[in-house]
Amino acid sequence: MRSKINHEKIIFIIAGELSGDHIGAGLIHQLKKLCNKPIKFVGVGGPQMIKEGLNPIFDMSEISVMGIFEIACKINKIIKLLKLTEQSVYDNKPSILITIDSPGFNLRIQKKVSHIKNLKKIHYVAPTVWAWKRYRAKQMAKFLDLLLVLFDFEKKYFTSEGLDTEFVGHAGIFSMNNNKINIKNRNKVLDLSNLKIALLPGSRQGEIKKLIPIFIGVAKELSKSFDNIEFFVVTLPAHEDYIEKHMQDSGLKYYLTSNVEEKLNIYSSVDCALCASGTVSLELANYRTPMVVAYKLNWLTWILVRFMVKVNTASIVNIILNKKIISEYFQNKASVKNLSIAVKDLLIDKDLRNQQIQGFDEAIKCVINSSKDPSYLAAKAIMRKM
Q: Is 6 helix (H, G, I), strand (E, B) or coil?
């Protein structure tokens, strides 16, 4: 009896961050809908990708590391995971390798397996070559078949090197815009006797440890200046207990959550936010929520970053607009004193808030691609490579 031929298509997909897990889940969902053959998804991802059918080879948190010093401390483990992932690609014999963000890990994998014939190599979310390591665009063009970018302005840096690049838009912003949440009227004068402020200290344990004591200090200072003020802290389930321990002894009026639906309601309803630098600033901008951004890196990482970075801002909204409408405070400047003054100014000065809001509206237009689902656009682009 003749054995049955397995027509199942195998796609190897890797995401190393929470935001990448969200992007990967949407992509897997759309690929399953568009492909007329069954697909087996193998690789690295978080709970959302696993829910969509990913077979994980190890936990995504193992490679969720940011910062040169932080990576150096875990270099032996990262090398082992690189070897494990590379071997898994060989063993599974996929027809497509898709890597999402996390360029330090993912582009190394793409390069290591670039010699495999008939393997289509695709990267989703461009590394910030416009900010630093501009040579990366030329290198990537040598081993990638397709690059999918979130922001339209990024495309030119890669197409100029001959890399097939498509602008698909930001999946997170698209899904937020499909959520039927009423956005608070931001143009009115604030009731300074009844304020709501979001405290968003980041998604990684390292950044939370550095920022949460400072953010609590700022909250205490603000509570001295305004009569009735409530703070909303949004985090991930893994960090909820750690933050709760810090918040419960603060004497502040606060609400702590890790619920995604509550997060979106909070972003849309608070008067302003104090947040870590990252994707959250774009999410807040989508809800037209005024903000102050802070960040602290290991001092050695910071010295190297300042030496290599070619732009003078870190917030993606500022970068898209090519002007600094969001105040940013990094390293020693991210102090309780400086941040307290910045948040107070944002609460009291209506013109300052309106300047941010107008800029947010302009920036968000640049991350939406013809009102189409970025996951669908990405899946369609990938299907053309099959």
A: coil
